Amino acid sequence: MQVINLVRRAAKSEIMPRFQNLSSVDIMTKSREDDLVTEADLASEAMISRGLARLFPSALIVGEEAVAKNAKLRTVMAEHEFAFVIDPIDGTWNYAKGIPLFGVILSVLRFGTPIFGLLYDPIMDDYIVADDTDAATSLARANGRSHNLRTSSVTAPEKMNGYIHFGLMPKEDQAKLAPVLPQFLRTTSLRCSCHEYRILAQGHVEFILSSTLNPWDHAAGILACQKAGGVAAFIGDRAPYNAKQTTGYLLCASSQEAWDAVARIVEPALA
């Protein structure tokens, strides 16, 4: 609970006061023109990192913005027995544009495997949490109520909704994948992994497919969906999720049957 309260305090003091109050000098670009970072990202990551260091002095603590400055941190996080990974504002593009669809993601990795995951929504002040010692994923509301989550039971592709990070894929893969997407009911993207995984864990969509394997985007959500009944593995070799993998296609689905159904459609296109 101390970790959750730390994230909530960071959102209250560093994220929400700046939301829809950023000036142009508060918004910067990183790897691409649409890959943004704001003063709120930097300030909230710093606050969460300081708090975690006090609570867990022997842990490795890695934030998305720290990796942007030191790429070697991306590799070492999967080599540690106890590593915190922070996405201080997931959905920064939405946040910077004043769109209320963003979140804070925090995970704990053990040698690259997620053992704790937190998906926090600063707007609603609620969160989804999962850990490797509990059989369930829970959603806790700001009013103190909570309940366990269960993923969707839909397995027919023509009835499936999914999130595909299409615009982040190589252009040649986009061209191969696009013709098969009409086999699903609907595919889209929220530009926010936090809410995509939250929605998958709550049973409202059936899958997420991504080629951008940043652990701060996926580790917490993968664990949350697995504990709610879902399955996550890499397309091709079916290897389970681990943060050490940096290339390939990661598919998280609501069940093994749903995972297999999606893979039968997308895998030949991506081969």
Question: Termini distance?
Answer: 44 Å
User: Based on DSSP secondary structure assignment, what is the total number of beta strands?
Assistant: 14
Q: What coarse outline follows from CA principal-axis ratios? A: globular
The average pLDDT score comes to: 95
SS class? alpha+beta
H/E series: HEEHEHHEHEEEEEEHEHEHEEH
pLDDT < 50 runs, ≥5 residues: none
> Helix amount, in percent?
25-40%
Which sheet architecture does the biggest sheet show?
7 strands, mixed
Q: Report the portion of residues in β strands.
A: 15-25%
In spatial order, strands of the major sheet run: 3-4-5-6-7-8-9
Radius of gyration: 18 Å
Please count the helical segments: 9
Description:
With 271 residues, this protein is α+β, with helices and mostly antiparallel strands. It is built from 9 helices and 14 strands. The protein has helices spanning 2-15, 39-55, 64-69, 72-76, 92-96, 171-177, 193-201, 215-227, 256-270, and strands spanning 27-29, 36-38, 60-63, 83-90, 103-110, 113-121, 126-131, 138-140, 146-148, 161-164, 186-188, 207-210, 231-234, 250-253. Helix 7 packs parallel to helix 8 (215-227). The longest helix is centred in the first third of the chain and has 17 residues, at 39-55.
